[in-house]
Amino acid sequence: MIKAGMRLVAIATTLGGWAVASTLSSASAAPVLAHHPRVVAAHGGGGSGSAAGWASSNWSGYAITGPNGTFTSATGQWKVPSVSPSRKATYSSNWVGIDGFNDSNLIQTGTESDYYQGSAHYYAWWEILPAAETRISSISVHPNDSMSASIVEGAGGLWTITITDTSNGQSFTTQQSYSGQLSSAEWIEEAPSVGGRIAPLAHYSSPTRFDPGTANGANPGLVASDGGVMIQGGVQVSTPSNPDSDTDGFNMAYGSSAPSPPSS
Predict the structure, then answer these.
(1) β partners of residue 213
(2) Which of 14, 99, 175, 243 could form a disulfide linkage to 222, CB 3.0–4.6 angstroms apart?
(3) What span, in angstroms and rounded, lies between the C-alpha atoms of 39 and 106?
(4) Residue span of the structural domain in which 13 resides
(5) What are the backbone angles phi and psi of residue 166, rounded to the nearest 5°?
(6) Going by C-beta distance under 8 Å and a sequence separation of 6 or more, which residues neighbour residue 106?
């Protein structure tokens, strides 16, 4: 049993064939989160108004795919959702990334909107699997802030990860080595993992807008079948809209009903 006051103890767990670094801590410490590749779920959670082409127990949103080596950059903009109080801890991540749709690699950056220990928590982060997320303390994130993020391949296998809170002007950039399949680009609402298990999705404010996004510096040309819903406990808990009219954005809604797309 882990009791308050005990030291942090790092452990390794496995989820879906890849390692997740997790940390046990006292009850007052913030949980250590990890984001992970798409976990496929059966499509049939009772949703309506969406022509989504895939279902997952941890992802919802949009993803486009191609042969290995296709994607060398992805950008996205979104509004940070607020989260409702919950009796148990619940978590919600919004991010843009490359890989992870059909493989175990993933490079990504985003924001967190979580509810635990009696209050909501918001912050920015970046992550390259198999490591857990790295929190970005230099950006103060609040609900309804406008975020902009990019992931761009440079020379020598170095990638530049940038995330900016355009509501307050705070920004963060890091360069990291990454070698993945480069076979997908994503704009995702995720239920992250805590202690190696997929967490319950937080009840996030709806609609949450992802718009615009780019892949390889161009319009991603989203179609409805690129979208996916999240199924937890046999219930559809997160649903994207159809793409907007210029095919570079969409809205997300908590629950099983698809929201209307953004006005472009």
Answers:
(1) 76
(2) 243
(3) 13
(4) 9-254
(5) -75, -10
(6) 35, 36, 37, 97, 98, 99, 100, 127, 128, 129, 180
* Residue 264 domain flag: no
Q: Are 14 and 224 in contact (CB under 8 A)?
A: no
| Count of the separate structural domains present in the chain | 1
The mean pLDDT of the chain is 89
* Whole-number Å distance between alpha carbons of 238 and 201: 8
Q: How does DSSP assign the chain, residue by residue?
A: ---TTPPPEEEEEEETTEEEEEEE--TTSPPPEE-----B--S-S--BS---SEEESSEEEEEEE-STT--SEEEEEEEPPPB---SS-BB-EEEEEES-SSSS--EEEEEEEEEETTEEEEEEEEEETTSPPEEETT----TT-EEEEEEEE-GGGEEEEEEEETTTTEEEEEEEE------EEEEEEE--EETTEEPPBP-B-SPEEEEEEEETTB-----GGGEEEEEETTEEEEEEPPP-TTSS-EEEEESSBPPPPP--
pTM over 0.85: yes
Q: In this structure, what CATH number is given to the domain that contains residue 151?
A: 2.60.120.700
What does the alpha-carbon distance between residue 112 and residue 99 come to, in Å, rounded to a whole number? 20
Per-residue pLDDT tens digits for 122-177 = 999 999 999 999 999 999 999 999 999 999 999 999 999 999 999 999 999 999 99
How do residues 89-104 score in pLDDT, each as one tens digit?
Answer: 999 999 999 999 999 9
CA-wise closest residue to 73 among 199, 204, 217: 217
Specify if 31 maps to a domain. Answer: yes
Q: How far apart are CA 58 and CA 192, in angstroms?
A: 7
